[in-house]
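# step 3/5: fold
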Amino acid sequence: MTIAREKSASGTVPRVRQVAYIVRRDQKPAALDRILDMEQPRTAIVFCRTRLAVDTLVETLNAHGYRAEALHGGMQQRQRDAVMNRVRSGKTDLLMATDVAARGLDIEHVSHVVNYDLPADPESYVHRIGRTGRAGRVGTAITLADAREHRLLRTIERFTKQTIEVQQVPTVKDLQARRLELLTATLRDRLAADDFDDVRAVVTALADDFDVMDIAAAAVKMAQGASGDEPDADIVAAPQPKADRGHREHGADRGAERGMARVFVGAGKKAGIRPADLVGAIAGESGVPSNVIGAIRITDNFSVVEVPEDLADRIIEAVKAGNLRGKKVTVRRDRDN
């Protein structure tokens, strides 16, 4: 485990475990969801590059059962204060923020910092991860990077003189094992509390016909199923860049990611379209899981959404047949594809 040490503004020395996952851009939301399930952070700050990314991710994670809040420059001061009060009082688990909005931010007991988008320079990276690992605790810094940003990770390592451990995104089996581990710990606590007299009669009644071990195993199986649906499929790791491939960590490549198609939607900001509207329309009309939807760009008059190439035609036909905020809109493949 790699531990980074960096002087913070308060003079304490944070200790940070640094981990990176190389993930395709379109799979970042699903990867983050999986990693958070594994890590179980007490309080985490997730840094995104844009306001749009912050708002989209908040809606996605809240839909998956997290308590996430946004913090960015598009919010009024009273809104920011309300968010910070909820974070400090423990009513919020995840704070999604841009660098500008997070300047001067000081929250005690931040267990994890997540770079959902890599910062533009190593100094910003160090400043971000310095928000965890305080007061003698070991914090965790997690970075989600696509293959084109692998070179930037190496630049950060040279700057910090610390190794960033590159890991595979947890698999379905990893997540199942983690959930069983947490369930075991919960059962130990409940058994130690000895507060189940009200249900002991159920076990007594079943014990006449079944083995007690089988009864307990069945109860664990039911509790495991109640913890939530298992992920549909494993997340495929992004390919590592070849040595001679040009580096474009922050390039303006506007083409779709490999395996993705861009869908044009003839409505934008002037029609009140938000990322949640597009995600809801696509998932609701076509039945496609929301976590496979990629980057979303909303302009004044139209929007462009990245979707899996093999699902693009199905999505286009489904959304075209339905409504977006109560209106019929043009939906087609983007001509730039």
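# step 4/5: annotate
The longest helix spans residues 172-193.
# step 5/5: archive (pending)
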